[in-house]
Amino acid sequence: MPLMRRWLLPILLGLVCFVVAWQAALGLAPRVIMAVAVKRLAEAGGLNHMLHAPLPAAGRRTIVRPSPDLAYSSCPFDLSKGPLLVEVAPVPAPYWSLSVFDARTDVAFVRNNRDTEGGPIRIALARAGQAVPEGIETVRLDADKGVALVRILVESRERFGAIDRARRASRCVRI
Q1: Residue 157 lies in a domain
Q2: Alpha helices, DSSP H only, in 46-76?
Q3: Of 23, 119, 134, 136, most Cβ neighbours within 10 A?
Q4: For the chain, how many structural domains are there in total?
Q5: CATH at 136
Q6: Phi then psi for 77, rounded to 5 degrees?
Q7: Is residue 32 part of a domain?
Q8: How confident is the model at residue 83 (pLDDT cuts 50, 70, 90)?
């Protein structure tokens, strides 16, 4: 019995430390992952600027584990100096979408060409208290940084030229 009592406190302390470390990792990991993603995308094309990546290939990947059937355009954003206008132009593809991910990697907004009946998507990304012009759909975020990601289905690589020309009309700019 004395041996068990001697080890009981260290074992309990170890379990408490494990639970605290586990919860800290779960809370911090998404923010760290998104901070790294925003930094890498910003290095490739700048903050608050739409980057139109080439089609994914084995040695050329802008995002982690991209689908070879999708073309990606991304806008890493920082709302600390004001709101951002994100405009996605329609493209000649059977499917395209805009997703906005916040600083915790949560999806804050998603819309696709079927939702808009083939029309453009135009939204403002803003923090609470930031003014946005009337008539623009607004997505309010809890943190300054995140990523707006456009995904376009490319059925055949021969059609990519037309898709690429059309998607370059998409943009994100400070309001």
Answers
A1: yes
A2: none
A3: 136
A4: 1
A5: 2.60.40.1610
A6: -125, 160
A7: no
A8: very high
Please state, in angstroms and rounded to a whole number, the distance separating the CA atoms of residues 152 and 61: 16
Predicted pLDDT at 65: 65
Which ranges of the chain would DSSP assign to H, the alpha helix? Answer: 2-45, 160-167
The encoded tokens of residue 46 equal 């700048």
Query: Tokens 């920082």 correspond to what residue?
Result: 78
Res. 63 pLDDT band, cuts 50 70 90? low
**Domain assignment present for 73:** yes
DSSP characters over 114-132: TTTTT--EEEEEEETT---
SS3 label, residue 49: coil
Q: Look at residue 73 and give its three-state secondary structure.
A: strand
The residue that leads in pLDDT, 81 or 45, is: 81
What is the reported pTM? Answer: 0.82
Q: Does residue 38 lie in a domain region?
A: no
Domain range for 92: 51-174
115-135 confidence digits (pLDDT tens): 999 899 999 999 999 999 999
